[in-house]
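We examine the record.

___
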Amino acid sequence: MSFPEIVKLYCVLMLAVLSSTVTAQVPPLIASVSPITAEQAGPRLAKLKQGLREVGLIEGKDFILKSWYADGQPERLLTLTKEALESNPAILLVVTPASIKAAQKMTSTIPILFASVSDPVGNGIVASLARPGGNTTGLSGQSEDLVTKRVEMIHESLPRARRIAVLQADTILHHRMFKTANLAATSFGIGVKPFVASTPTELATAFADIKAYRPDALLIMALPMYYGERERIGKLAQAQRLAVFAPESEFVDAGSLVSYAPSFDEIFRQVGVFIKKILSGTKPADLPVEQPTKFEMVVNIKVAKSLGIVLPKTFILRADRLVE
């Protein structure tokens, strides 16, 4: 072999080594699809990153996180989920049943991880909590299980309440949750009526109808869109002097009266544990779906005073946090 040939071979080998090194140094991609805006999703995303740091994963070194936002337009979720999967991520992170089911139809190999999704078995997302099967696992939000508890809290804090308005979306899950709320309310002699708002544009009409109903309290079902619109919902409710019982604590900071819910900060931190296990080689089928273990009750004392509501002392003492 001549000297020029040796030099050429050496250069080819060095390029191959360098190419392999560069490829090996590219961190795995975590693709996140959110139904709300980047600003609205910010607090939960911060908790996710905190959870990843706590398990020793450093952004930019151990993973790259890229997010797609539907900006409150659920009809965009299918397209965004497709775009996210086309980026060939190591993990797809989603928070709505629609996104999960769409992703499951598009891939059977890329791990799909969900966070705070209600009734994943009943929604047909996983085979069972203990053995999810397929390429999907995550953390349940137990939203349906807590509806009865929130109705009980309405009766306890507003013993004279006789009408409850329920803000919900036009989904099978929310219709089922309404039946649960109705059953609980009936046991206290309280009537309930559903008011549907599946998109941000439908909120104004829903609240106009709620005003005509003249309820004693408003019960809000869990929905990512409602979370994103919680400030607006708070203002609409305050304009009607409504006592709002919400599915997440951030609603109380935005003007709702009471929330009782899982610690969503804890849920999104726990997502980091799932991500590390999957990146380490564990298959989603071998990771049982986890249910929340920590629940929080938050009460807005300032709102109670503005509405002229005197909450029982025993009720206030049970609160994990007071907004004053």
Notes: The chain has 13 helices and twelve strands. The domain at 8-141+264-293 is CATH 3.40.50.2300 (Rossmann fold).
